[in-house]
Amino acid sequence: MYEQVLQNLCTLVQYRPEDAEVLKRVYPVTSTWADEFVQNFYDVLFGYEPTARIFQPNERPAREQTLREWYLRLVKGDVDESFWRGQWRVGLVHIYRRVTNDFMIAMMSCLQQEFLRKCMDTWPSAEAAEVFLAFKRTTDVVSGLIAEGYMRGYQQAMKELLGFRIGLLERLIDMESKSLVERLEHLTVK
Ligand code: HEM
Fold this sequence. Notes:
By secondary structure, this protein is mainly alpha-helical. The protein has one domain: Globin-like (Orthogonal Bundle), CATH 1.10.490.10. It has 10 helices and no strands. It has helices spanning 2-13, 17-25, 27-30, 34-46, 49-52, 60-75, 81-96, 101-122, 125-162, 166-187. Helix 1 (2-13) packs antiparallel against helix 9 and helix 4 (34-46) packs across helix 6 (60-75). It is globular and about 50 Å long. Bound molecules: protoporphyrin IX containing FE (HEM). Residues 45, 51, 54, 66, 70, 89-90, 93-94, 97, 99, 103-104, 107-108, 111 line the site of protoporphyrin IX containing FE (HEM).
């Protein structure tokens, strides 16, 4: 399941192994951005009540450290099988910490925007684009793995807890989601 999702993402995002080489080359520069990115990331999350309430008191230093390590490994181009598998795991951890994918995707977008600004301030436009696109493709595959890890983990847990077969669960969810769409259409002003 995880392998198929990884393959789908890498193919459709057009991730290529050379992206890791590009990131590795500029690591001496991008690694110096880590503290600023991590600080901004958690300033945003702690400054917004729906995300601030996810955290335990005193949890911020540990969360900052985890994000710093994640960022540094990624920009070092240390992107191998264990790195990708770790992103799937993040999705599972996010389930029980109630970190839904709207939060995750929004924060990945913030990070990508800040990374782009830094690239444009640092390199001529062709190189800035090359570095940014390598970062963008890699982090888009990460977002996809976290989101799908979350969704599949959620389904798996429901299946195991409720004793459904996954095929039956999927058919029931298909029916229920169709009815949700119909209800939404009644509400939509045409
Ligand atoms: C760019 C998006 C994000 C990335 C790359 C990311 C990355 C990670 C990583 C690497 C872990 C550690 C997972 C493990 O133990 O294997 C983690 C856990 C966690 N993340 Fe995220 N995260 C993101 C977004 C968020 C957001 C938006 C929130 C809160 C609103 C959040 C809150 C947490 C929490 C509470 C944990 C659990 C820590 C624990 O209990 O061990 N994350 N995340």
